[in-house]
Design brief:
It comes from Nitrosospira multiformis (strain ATCC 25196 / NCIMB 11849 / C 71). This is PEGA domain-containing protein. This protein is mainly β. The protein is 0% helix and 56% strand. It has a four-stranded antiparallel beta sheet, with no helix packed on it. A three-stranded mixed beta sheet has the order 4-1-8, with no helix packed on it. The chain has a two-stranded antiparallel sheet with strand order 6-9. Strand 2 and strand 3 form a beta hairpin. The N and C termini lie far apart (35 Å). The mean pLDDT is 97.
Length: 71
Amino acid sequence: MEFVIVSYPARRPVYVDGDLCGYTNEVLQMDAGTHKFTLAPPEDCDPICCEVMVKGTTVLLPMKVAFIKKW
């Protein structure tokens, strides 16, 4: 089991590989491997999606995937 925090200034639903997985700024659990992360609309974030390899994390040291708000 792997752990990821998807950061964004506001609380937004997080989709992993097209499935709702949780919310931004919370620890999410998933299997190891390459995953595609996106936020729920509106598409006001950068990047729009992020594909990363998730491996070697712990609940105390989750991977961080960062999205920023476009102005």
